[in-house]
């Protein structure tokens, strides 16, 4: 013991600090070590939080808070991850290669360069994208360059002080995100590096390539092919949510024949502090308030929003019933409309392609697929699963993720989806219709679907596990006025699903509630769905929403 601080803990922190190439995190760790050595309980607790465990490389890669230590995102951890991934690629590919992209978050460019140098030093041909770019461009580049793997340094829509390390595989994975067992194999290599090597013993090289703008130009060209030949004039607002979407999205919209978007001026440039939003996620309350105000002032017809790395899309439409005058469409609403559009395209061309959605997304897409006699698949949450469906033509997940062009990108793509949605609205305008009438036609043909989500954010992540355990031990028999008819537990696998911490509660009348921990944030998430296909079509949506509202109240009590 040293003034109350365990020697092993201090030794681990000092060893980490002494190999850290980042002056900021070195200084931060020195301050903690000094305070812990002097007996500060808070400093000791903080060191334990950082050194008693480490961020695990899983199917979402790495994601966490920027700070020193193995349980945080920093240059030491990222360099170890790069070296482990390099070892995996050398083991599995005869001529291993990788393309690396990064967004505008703090340290993203540094982590990307570290990765390129470590890859080159390990004998992996490395290509670094020319500047900060959206995640969909990196996902496209994996297929475009036909490389063994891709890395995107991003934390997507996480809080400002987070960053992440997202990995794609080429070869048989065709540019999709990693899944098991690759994640475990990469993690094993990373652990070996972390325990057996210091950073200065890892070979580095500046002999990597930096891609030119041709890859961006090709992404734009391929995306524009989704648009109609002519577009009805539309006035729309665009926000990049302080991220990297503006340049590429704007060029795509203009090349497709759409007007210059009205921009949310304070949110268009990349800013890792995300100063105008509490969370840089269009789903979060308040995140789109500036877009609403801008659209009202401009008299716009539509709002298009990307999250900071532009792999997600949010859409808002005028609605006088809302205090802001605008209503953000849910991910299920956008996903269903784009799915209907995809099915119509397939029908017109006579092509057969599969539709897919994550298991927590609305069941509406399954009904669309059945009506058009198309294959359909439910998948586990995450586009690492959606993108791997055989013969996929369209896929989505309710968390604002849409894949409208699987031949080009095998991940959600908020820019391609934005163009497809603009094209849909444009076509409706050209035909003398609008989104509201289009939605009414859907309700008449397929029934009305409503959904909601309850998220319980926690500071103590053990609460999530205890809540899931409680629900398994004493499952509900009724929610609101609806009896529970069955409960599917995915924990040991179910049908073709891999084991996952998901409970699916089916209710009388066909409604359902799904409970699962978030894979990227300290949240418990509950998904609520209801559908009404009987009665006058114009009343169905309100009837479905009434069921969802009742279930939401019951769910908040259930998971409290």
Automatic annotation (TrEMBL):
Entry GO MF terms: magnesium ion binding; phosphopentomutase activity
Cofactor(s) in the UniProt record: Mg(2+)
Keywords, comma-separated and alphabetical: Isomerase, Magnesium, Metal-binding, Phosphoprotein
Keyword flag Zinc-finger: no
Ranges of residues in domain Alpha-D-phosphohexomutase C-terminal: 499-535
Residue span, Alpha-D-phosphohexomutase alpha/beta/alpha domain: 55-194, 218-316, 331-438
InterPro entries named in the record: A-D-PHexomutase_a/b/a-I, A-D-PHexomutase_a/b/a-I/II/III, A-D-PHexomutase_a/b/a-II, A-D-PHexomutase_a/b/a-III, A-D-PHexomutase_C, A-D-PHexomutase_C_sf, A-D-PHexomutase_CS, Alpha-D-phosphohexomutase_SF
Phosphoprotein as UniProt keyword: yes
Biological processes, Gene Ontology terms: carbohydrate metabolic process; purine ribonucleoside salvage
Similarity comment: Belongs to the phosphohexose mutase family.
Protein name: Phosphomannomutase
Organism of derivation: Homoserinimonas hongtaonis
């Amino acid at each position: 013991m040293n003034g109350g601080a365990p020697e092993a803990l201090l030794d681990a922190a000092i060893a980490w600090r002494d190999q850290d190439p980042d002056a900021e995190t070195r200084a931060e760790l020195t301050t903690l070590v000094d305070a812990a050595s002097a007996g500060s309980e808070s400093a000791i607790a903080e060191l334990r939080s950082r050194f008693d465990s480490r961020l695990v490389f899983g199917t979402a890669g790495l994601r966490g808070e920027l700070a020193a230590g193995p349980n945080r995102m920093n240059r030491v951890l990222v360099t170890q991850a790069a070296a482990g991934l390099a070892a995996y690629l050398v083991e599995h590919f005869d001529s291993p290669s990788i393309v690396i992209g990064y967004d505008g978050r703090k340290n993203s460019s540094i982590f990307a360069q570290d990765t390129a140098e470590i890859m080159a030093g390990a004998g992996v041909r490395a290509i670094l994208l020319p500047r900060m770019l959206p995640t969909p461009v990196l996902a496209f580049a994996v297929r475009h360059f036909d490389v063994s793997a891709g890395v995107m340094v991003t934390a997507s829509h996480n809080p400002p002080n987070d960053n992440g390390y997202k990995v794609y595989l080429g070869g048989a994975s065709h540019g999709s995100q990693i899944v098991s067992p690759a994640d475990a194999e990469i993690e094993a290599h990373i652990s070996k590096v972390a325990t057996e090597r210091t950073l200065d013993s890892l070979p580095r090289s500046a002999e990597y390539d930096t891609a030119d703008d041709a890859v961006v130009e090709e992404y734009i060209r391929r995306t524009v092919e989704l648009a109609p030949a002519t577009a009805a004039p539309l006035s729309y607002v665009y926000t990049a949510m302080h991220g990297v979407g503006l340049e590429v999205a704007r060029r795509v919209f203009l090349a497709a024949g759409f007007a210059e978007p009205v921009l949310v001026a304070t949110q268009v440039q990349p800013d890792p502090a995300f100063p105008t939003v509490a969370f840089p996620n269009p789903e979060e309350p308040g995140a789109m308030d500036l877009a609403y105000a801008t659209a009202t002032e401009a008299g716009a017809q539509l709002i298009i929003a990307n999250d900071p790395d532009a792999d997600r899309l949010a859409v808002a439409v005028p609605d006088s019933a809302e205090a802001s005058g605008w209503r953000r469409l849910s991910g299920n609403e956008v996903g269903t409309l784009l799915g209907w559009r995809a099915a119509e395209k397939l029908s017109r061309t006579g092509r057969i392609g599969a539709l897919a959605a994550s298991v927590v997304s609305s069941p509406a897409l399954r009904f669309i697929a059945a009506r058009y006699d198309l294959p359909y698949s439910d998948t586990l949450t995450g586009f690492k699963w959606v993108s791997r469906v055989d013969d996929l033509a369209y896929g989505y997940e309710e968390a604002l993720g849409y894949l409208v062009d699987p031949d080009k990108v095998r991940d959600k793509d908020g820019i391609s989806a934005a163009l497809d949605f603009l094209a849909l609205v444009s076509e409706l305008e050209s035909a003398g219709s609008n989104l509201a009438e289009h939605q009414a036609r859907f309700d008449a043909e397929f029934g009305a679907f409503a959904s909601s989500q309850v998220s319980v954010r926690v500071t103590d992540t053990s609460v999530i596990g205890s809540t899931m355990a409680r629900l398994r031990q004493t499952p509900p028999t009724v929610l609101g006025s609806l009896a529970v008819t069955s409960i599917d537990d995915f924990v040991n696998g179910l049908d073709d699903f891999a084991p996952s911490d998901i409970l699916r509660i089916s209710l009388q009348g066909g409604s359902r509630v799904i409970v699962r921990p978030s894979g990227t944030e300290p949240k418990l998430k509950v998904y609520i769905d209801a559908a009404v296909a009987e009665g006058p079509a114009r009343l169905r949506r309100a009837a479905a929403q009434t069921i969802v509202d009742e279930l939401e109240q019951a769910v908040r009590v259930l998971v409290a």
